[in-house]
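can u do me a favor
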C-alpha cells in the first residue's frame, strides 16, 4: 500500500530559493555562513552550493519582504553565541536573545534582507 502523500513520483530538493532585492550581496552573506563559493549567474540570480547541503539560490524580485517567512533554515551550531556573533559581523541582526527549552536552545536572526533563520543547539 502506498503512503497517503505519495503521488507515484518521488521528488528530491534541488535547491532552496530566496526572493530578494540583491542576489549578489545576499549569496555572499550565506556563503560566508555556510561555506561554498558564491556564483552570480546574472544580475537577477545567484547561488551557493554549501558543503553537504542543497544549493541555495537567490532571485531578484521587485517587491520587498513584508512579513515573517513561512519557511526558514535552522542551522546547527555547537556555540550559538559565537555563530550569532559571526553572522552579525557579516550583516545579520539578532531577534531577541537565545531561547532555552527542553529540546535545546536557539537564536533567531535575520539576514541582511530580513529573512529569518535560527542557530540551534540540541
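np, heres the sequence
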Amino acid at each position: 500500500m502506498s503512503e497517503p502523500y505519495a503521488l507515484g513520483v518521488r521528488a528530491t530538493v534541488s535547491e532552496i530559493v530566496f526572493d530578494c532585492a540583491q542576489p549578489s550581496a545576499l549569496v555572499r552573506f550565506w556563503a560566508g555562513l555556510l561555506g561554498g563559493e558564491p556564483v552570480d549567474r546574472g544580475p537577477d540570480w545567484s547561488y551557493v552550493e554549501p558543503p553537504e547541503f542543497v544549493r541555495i539560490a537567490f532571485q531578484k524580485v521587485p517587491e520587498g519582504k513584508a512579513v515573517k517567512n513561512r519557511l526558514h533554515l535552522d542551522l546547527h551550531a555547537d556555540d550559538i553565541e559565537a555563530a550569532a556573533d559571526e553572522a552579525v559581523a557579516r550583516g545579520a541582526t539578532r531577534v531577541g536573545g537565545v531561547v532555552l527549552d527542553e529540546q535545546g536552545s536557539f537564536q533567531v536572526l535575520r539576514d541582511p534582507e530580513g529573512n529569518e533563520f535560527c542557530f540551534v543547539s540540541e
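The first helix runs from residue 23 to 34. hope that helps!!
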